[in-house]
Amino acid sequence: MQTQALQLKPQPVPLKPKRQETVVAAVDTSSMKIGETSTGILIAVRGATVWKQNKHYRYMRLGPFIFHTTEENKREVYNALQRAYFNSQREHNHQSLPNLMQMPTRIANLLERWLQTMLSKTIGNGLILFDGSLTAGTSDTPTQIMKEILNTARKKASTVLAFSKITNLRFNGHLITEIPPFHEPPYLLEIVSLKTRPPIVVLGDIYVARLTQGNYAFRLDIDKEVSPEQKIQAVEKLLGNDSLSQSYPETLRLAHILCTFTANEVIAMQHFTAHKYGLKMVNRPDMHRLLFGPFGRGEGNS
Amino acid sequence: MKLYKKEGNIVQILSFPNETVEKGDYLLIEDSDAGKALIAQVIDVQFASIPGILEELLRSLPDGGELIQGEDFDPLEIAPHITYIQDASLLICKIRATVENESLSPSSSWLPSRSQSTIKKLPIPKLLKLAKIDGQLPIVLGGTKDSSLLTIDALSLDGRLNIITGKKETGKSHLSKLLMLDLIGYKATVVVFDLNGEYLSLGTTSDGKRNAYNDKIHVLTPSQNFKISLKQLNLQVLLGILIHALHLPGTSAREFRRIWQSLKERDMLNMHELGEAIRNWHCNQHVRDALFSRYYALVNSGFFTDDTAETMLLEERLFKAKEQGGAIIINLRNTSSIDRQIVVEYALGKLVELLTSLRLKAIFLFAEEAHLYLRETYWDDIVTRMRHFGIFATFITNQPDTIRENIYRQADNIFLFNFTNEHDLEVVSRAARVDAETVKSIARDLPPHYCLALGKVVKDFPMVVKVKALDVKTMGETRLFFKNIN
């Protein structure tokens, strides 16, 4: 995505927590392949929205939703979900459809966009935290949908802040999140001159956010259309209204924790599909292990 | 239920929340292809080690320890399945026997199929039938957890060494009374060393009326209705009292033997003459002093008398009990430690004398807190030598460490009530007829009046039983200061 050398604004933006009462809401989803059948895979997705209001966290968790996707039904499943979530008339043909192994992420992304849309419509004068970036134009983040989400949030006087745990953006060869701190946190470092190739568009201004003491920093995307002052104020309100640990907001952490599948949930879902639908899981041998024994990396490590 | 693991004679079984299994229950692991089944007893119930459970628990408490509030929209209703998996338990079971063609063998050497075996609860009545725990002389101990009666055979107490133990107020004495009364019912002769006067009213119902055992209960209270004369004693019994109860040194014992022979030859065996003989005997002054001090101990016990009208012949009571069955209750309540030992030495000496001369067939001896009156050497004597003469002991104690390890090893039956103390359980678990895991795991959770029966009475199938109530006047209640305050 990065097409030229990044520039960092030389002066960091120091931040001061703003205690003005503001709702902080976050959304995250997770997906998992819970098993394989003779014809396809079983997918589970779940989403969670968490908001902090009056010093208390509340959540709404949706799912798990379980799908049995096969090469035969994946198009139907994906298109049906897209229609249902976004009223989209865009039909994917076989070429633009994800392959079977990408289906868990793609379905989870659909759910995530829908949850983001719902939050942007319901939260007023608040902060909406996304997991990831505000980059659009990819197959799972259509530009139009992301723009609509940001527009809606803006109309409700809310600001969208997107935190990426992992980034590939580098400055002078170093990952932007690993640039040594040269200012007392909390502060932001603005990144300029990031150009992308169409159809990829970046809908936010990008910062390196170092919000607490310690070595943790994250890429933070803030809605581009918001005024520079409002962007800074939004981060300051986040500092004043949410707990932050390791530079990461607690609301977003909770959203992630609540939607993640634990091993016993996976077992329970396998139990559910076997009992309710009689789906028989197949255990395919791990060829790496089979061929290379202890030198095989195993499926999980590949 | 699913068979998960087998290690030695322990099997681990995965059980789900809709299958209610508790400690002490028996399971039948049936492998129809092999035509065999294992009988296993649940000795512990643990949480199954479900992957991800820690994350699940941590997730529910992220808000500073306060439960995070929220809503779950779960259209497929997966949550009950998650709970179902989370609440799965692991049953740790001890293999007790193998059933093949309706007959039992103690083998656990074969492995049932993990995928094909069916596991179900084995109802106690069915187990009792399979193990043939009933017999010709039934004694109903009480009810098992599935409301069936546990009936043991009085024959399984005959010739056996039994231990009833458990912490205070769990029902040990109650069970010993039950066993005792049932044995009397089968015309057995029972002797009880009653330390706290708990057995004195066994012939009376709880409302004070005479019961069926009334004329079979003979209470002997030393120095009251239980006195003896020297003429009734043989020298060995008296020397036993002097040496073991009163610690008379060997040299003095030899002098005493001469004095005794001298009095016997002159037909002057009585307390008064014994005192005079010691006074006038030509011997070392220290020996005389030693003899005198023991003589006065005998006199002061009030247990010896020269008045023949006051004497009571223990053998007469025993012979009477021998005819119709009966219990001789030797009331040791309000008796000093020394006097208790004198009385017990006498009674045991007399019993051995009657049994060796075959004048008595056999007796069941019930001894409460025997360490308080039984000398060290008698323990081995009772469980080995005296057993051959026909003294079949039942020890009742709330301090299991007062009974020596070798006694536990030789015990045929153990009736174990609740113990929470690790040390106490450790002691009891040394018994040969039971495995330590069973004792430690089950006994710890027994409610009051529930007992774990182990040994021959249950054909080595440990069983938990709620001891049935008895309609007899209880005397073992502790006298309380705040009795009238609710």
Mind explaining what this structure looks like?
The complex is a heterodimer of chains A (about 300) and B (about 475). With about 300 residues, chain A is an alpha+beta fold. Chain A has a single domain, classed as archaeoglobus fulgidus dsm 4304 fold. Helix content of chain A is about 30%, strand content about 30%. Chain A has seven helices and 16 strands. In chain A, strands 1, 2, 3, 4, 5, 6, 8, 11, 13 and 14 form a ten-stranded mixed sheet that branches. Chain A has a two-stranded antiparallel ribbon with strand order 7-12. Chain A has a two-stranded antiparallel sheet with strand order 9-10. In chain A, strand 9 (about 170) and strand 10 (about 175) form a beta hairpin. In chain A, helix 1 packs parallel to helix 2 and helix 2 (about 105-120) packs parallel to helix 3. In chain A, about 45% of the residues are buried. By secondary structure, chain B is of the alpha/beta class. Chain B folds into three domains: about 1-120, no CATH class; about 150-225 and about 310-465, 3-Layer(aba) Sandwich (Rossmann fold), CATH 3.40.50.300; about 230-300, no CATH class. In chain B, helix 5 runs antiparallel to helix 6 (about 250-265), helix 6 (about 250-265) packs across helix 7 and helix 13 (about 420-430) crosses helix 14 (about 435-445). Chain B is elongated, with a radius of gyration of 29 Å. The mean pLDDT of chain B is about 85. Strand 5 (about 55-70) of chain A pairs parallel with strand 5 (about 70-75) of chain B.
The CATH architecture of the largest domain in chain B: 3-Layer(aba) Sandwich
Number of strand elements of chain A? 16
- How would you describe the shape of chain A? globular
The CATH topology of chain A turns out to be archaeoglobus fulgidus dsm 4304 fold
Question: Number of folding domains of chain B?
Answer: 3
Low-confidence regions of chain B: none
Strand content of chain A: 25-35%
- Helix and strand composition category of chain A: alpha+beta
Mean pLDDT of chain A: 86
Helix content of chain A: 25-40%
Q: What is the rounded distance between the termini of chain A?
A: 24 Å
Distance between the termini of chain B: 47 Å
Largest interface: A-B, 27 and 24 residues
For the biggest sheet of chain B, the summary is:
11 strands, mixed
Biggest sheet overview of chain A: 10 strands, mixed
CATH class of the largest domain in chain B: Alpha Beta
Q: What does the radius of gyration of chain A come to?
A: 21 Å
**Tally of strands of chain B:** 19
